[in-house]
Write a structure and sequence with these properties.
The chain has about 80 residues and is mostly helical. The protein is built from 5 helices and no strands.
């Protein structure tokens, strides 16, 4: 992540790359279901987000996420990794 890149931009970029979908399509999607994100893809997305943003996303909270705005809210409240 570049210092100027917002978490929201990183999220949409990572999802677009993982799902091989244009970023504009990802930004317009209302739900994860619309993007056909399955549980394995979600794990890959979250691992990449944690690495890129230096955060730790709570697995229990992640289970409740049904949309990218919900995932973004979770990212913004996730603690930074130690070290």
């Amino acid at each position: 992540m570049t210092p100027m890149q917002a978490p929201e931009d990183v999220l949409y970029e990572v999802v677009a790359k993982e799902m091989n979908t244009p970023e504009a399509t990802v930004r317009q999607a209302q739900t994860l279901e619309e993007l056909n994100i399955d549980s394995l893809e979600m794990i890959e997305i979250v691992m990449t987000l944690e690495d890129r943003l230096g955060i730790t996303i709570d697995d229990r909270q992640l289970r409740e996420v049904k949309s990218l705005p919900q995932l973004l809210a979770l990212i913004e409240t996730s603690p930074k990794k130690a070290g």
